[in-house]
Every structure is written in structure tokens, then in C-alpha cells.
Design brief:
Length: 333
């Protein structure tokens, strides 16, 4: 038997988890979906005709918290026409992994093999590892290989290794027998990769998960607040829907869409814990305080001059921890 306090925490936990599972379809996501479908059906047509032209790819680029990993996970998991990696099924239309660090040729190849379900001993040469990767991609009939955190390729310490990895990715796309499209996602540093390698740039189309702004996204963010509050069984106080509050929210999230959502969910949790019926400004302020540990003078929901606050900096001290946590959550069990 749970005590009433335990029961309350359990109920709130369930509500919050349901909110975290929600996905808001945004314009960038639609762009991603359209581009992915174009590549997918082009490739399918080629396979049907037995013509294996070189494959192309997509790069999703945005700052931390913009929602790249979430969007790609959603894209793959909700596609009605994709066979994902599953127990007992050989075919895997897409295979997804996080770039390991350091992103050396051998290390990345090893992670690919692991993602393909063929973990091997570490003492193989990278030549053998990548040959195995290509073989398994063909056996599994994989059409797309997704590499998250791809900005890690661009680390000056491993510049020559990075070029090796890029060359290997290109050769995977150009494989005459079974070409595989590469989907990259990562932070803006990923763009440097394209400057460095024009051949790669020509084959991979970028989609920018750009920062949000009040002018272009204020209306939709306001409706997201309403939808989420409603889903959390809360009403919203009038002040929450005012332009200034929405501006504060966007600023507190340092203009990143995913962080906007995280703060909204955090505020809902505060309201539920305080057993309120409506979502108010103080819940947003508490959520930001809890997340950053900052004083009220630096809280974008409380400060008069909120635009002067560097929310990105307040968030970033926690960011690394957060990213690691997210990475763990994203790894398939
Ligand atoms: N479209 C969306 N709908 C609902 N929640 C979202 C959406 N996009 C992102 N989120 C939420 O925003 C947070 C950040 O998203 P995500 O981890 O995908 O960002 P990212 O761009 O991959 O960041 P990083 O570079 O740090 O890995 C997550 O908690 C995620 O659940
Ligand atoms: Mg991510």
C-alpha cells in the first residue's frame, strides 16, 4: 500500500511522463519528414528497378535543446513504411546510433556494428570492422544510417581521423552494390564538416532547427502552453497567455524549442505538486529556479529586465549533465 503522499507523487509522475511523451509537430519537423520521404521513396524505386545509384542524406543542425534527436526518433518510429531494427527480423531500413567519443574511425565503426546487432571484439583493424559494417548494412537491407551528435566528428585533435571517417561515410553512400544514405544530427559545429568536405556537402542536405522567436513562433508556443496545461488537467491564468509571458518563456529557454517544452512541463509539475488548479507565472518561475538554482533577480519569469539575463549561460552549467542524461535515455535498451 502506498501512503497518500506516495500516491500523489506517483500520480504526478504518471502525468509528467505522459506529457514528456507528447510530440509537437512543427514546421522544421515537416520539412525533415518531406525530405526524408523523398530520399526513401527514391531509394525504394531504385531497389525495385535493381539500380543502385549513390545515396544521399540529410543533416539536422541545431543547438542543444532544439529538438533534433527527438524529431529524428519521432520520424523513424512513426513512419508507417519503415522496418526498424527488431528482434528476429533481419531487415532494418534504418539504423541509428550516437557517435562515440573520441570519434575515431575504429571507434565509430565499432559503434555501427554494435548498432547493427553485431558486437565484436575490439582488437580488429578498422579495415575489417568497416568491411563488416558494409556487409551487415547490405544483409539487413539498411537504407539509412543515422549518426547523432555528429558534431563530435569535428574535433581538431582528431582531424586526420575525422577525414578518414568522412571518407568512409562517403564510400558507404557511393557503394555500388548497396549504397546507404547517411543522416547526421548535431550542433552547429557540424556545419564546419561541410565547409571542409564539399563532396559530402553536395550529397547531404542540411535542415536547420533554428532558434525560435516571439515574432515567428509566439502564437504557436502560446497554444502549446494551453495544450500541455490542458493535458495536465490544469487551467491557465490569463497572465500566462500574455505576449510578455510568452517572450519570457522563450528567453528563459534561450530560444530553443525543446527547452521551451521542458520548461512548460517543469511548470506544470510545480503546479501539480502545489495542488493548484491553474498554471500561473509562479509555477514557471519555480520551474526555472529548480532547474538552474538561480536567484530571483536572475529569473526571467520574475526579473523586470529579463532580456538582460543570459539564460543560456544559466542553463548551460547544467547542460552537460542533462545531455548525458538524455543520451542515456535515448539509448535503446
Ligand atoms: N517537437 C517536440 N515536441 C515535444 N517535445 C519536444 C519536441 N522537440 C524536443 N522536445 C523536448 O525537448 C527536449 C530537448 O530535445 P532533444 O533532446 O531532442 O534536443 P537536441 O537538439 O537533440 O539536443 P542535444 O544537442 O543536447 O542532444 C527533450 O526533453 C524533448 O523531449
Ligand atoms: Mg540530441
Amino acid at each position: 500500500m502506498m501512503t497518500p503522499a506516495q500516491q500523489k507523487a506517483f500520480d504526478i509522475g504518471q502525468k509528467i511522463m505522459a506529457l514528456q511523451r507528447r510530440f509537437v509537430t512543427h514546421a522544421r519537423y515537416r520539412e525533415l519528414e518531406a525530405k526524408f520521404d523523398a530520399l526513401l521513396y527514391h531509394r525504394r524505386a531504385g531497389i525495385e528497378l535493381g539500380q543502385h545509384h549513390e545515396a544521399h542524406g540529410i543533416a539536422v543542425i541545431g543547438r542543444s535543446g532544439s529538438g533534433k534527436s527527438t524529431a529524428i526518433r519521432r520520424l523513424f518510429s512513426r513512419h508507417s513504411d519503415l522496418q526498424l531494427l527488431a528482434d528476429g527480423v533481419v531487415r532494418a531500413d534504418v539504423v541509428s546510433l550516437t557517435v562515440p567519443s573520441p570519434a575515431t574511425l575504429k571507434h565509430v565503426g565499432h559503434s555501427c556494428l554494435q548498432a547493427l546487432g553485431y558486437p565484436i571484439r575490439r582488437d580488429r583493424t578498422s579495415g575489417i570492422i568497416w568491411e563488416l559494417v558494409q556487409n551487415h548494412l547490405r544483409q539487413r537491407q539498411t537504407m539509412f544510417l543515422h549518426l547523432d551528435e555528429a558534431q563530435d566528428f569535428y574535433s581538431s585533435r582528431f582531424r586526420s581521423e575525422m577525414q578518414d571517417v568522412v571518407n568512409t561515410l562517403k564510400s558507404i553512400m557511393q557503394n555500388r552494390i548497396w549504397p546507404v544514405g547517411i543522416i547526421l544530427s548535431g550542433m552547429p559545429g557540424l556545419m564546419d564538416l561541410f565547409d571542409l568536405d564539399t563532396q559530402l556537402a553536395r550529397r547531404i542536405e542540411p535542415i536547420h532547427f533554428a532558434p525560435v522567436s516571439y515574432t515567428s513562433d509566439g502564437k504557436s508556443i502560446r497554444s502549446v502552453v494551453e495544450q500541455y496545461a490542458h493535458a495536465g488537467c490544469l487551467g491557465v491564468e490569463a497572465i500566462i497567455l500574455q505576449a510578455e509571458t510568452v517572450r519570457r518563456l522563450i528567453h528563459a529557454a534561450s530560444d530553443e524549442f525543446g527547452l521551451v517544452i521542458e520548461i512548460i512541463i517543469g511548470a506544470i509539475e510545480e503546479a501539480l505538486v502545489a495542488e493548484r488548479k491553474t498554471l500561473g507565472l509562479r509555477d514557471f518561475a519555480s520551474a526555472f529556479r529548480r532547474r538552474t538554482g538561480c536567484i530571483d533577480g536572475l529569473n526571467p519569469f520574475l526579473s523586470e529586465d529579463f532580456l538582460a539575463i543570459n539564460a543560456g549561460k544559466l542553463l548551460s552549467s547544467l547542460e552537460r549533465e542533462d545531455r548525458n542524461w538524455r543520451r542515456k535515455r535515448e539509448e535503446p535498451a
